[in-house]
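Please, structure for the following, as C-alpha cells.
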Amino acid sequence: MDELQERVLAELRRYGANRLKDVARGAETRELAGLLTEKYGYGLAKALAIARELAGEPVPDLAREIESVVLEVDPDAVEHRRNRWDAMPAGLSLPRRDR
C-alpha cells in the first residue's frame, strides 16, 4: 500500500507539472491551475483512503503534500482560495471568442 501512496503522489506531481505547462503556454491562469490541482489531489487522496480502509490499513493525511504541489502551481493559492470562498457562489468568468 505504501507503493500505491507513492504512485498517487507521483501522479499528483505529474498533474501539477502539466498544469504549469498550460500556464506557461497561456491556456490557464495560475489561479485556475492551482484550483484544478487541488481538486485533483483531494480526489486522489480520497481514492487512496478508500483503498487503505478496505485493506484495514491506516488512512494517510496527504493534505500537506497536496498543498505543497498546489503552491508550486499557484504561489498565491491561499489568497485565491479565500477569494473564492468570499465570492460565493464561485463561478467562472470566461471571455467569449468571436468565431
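The chain has four helices and no strands. The helical segments are 2-24, 30-54, 63-73, 77-86.
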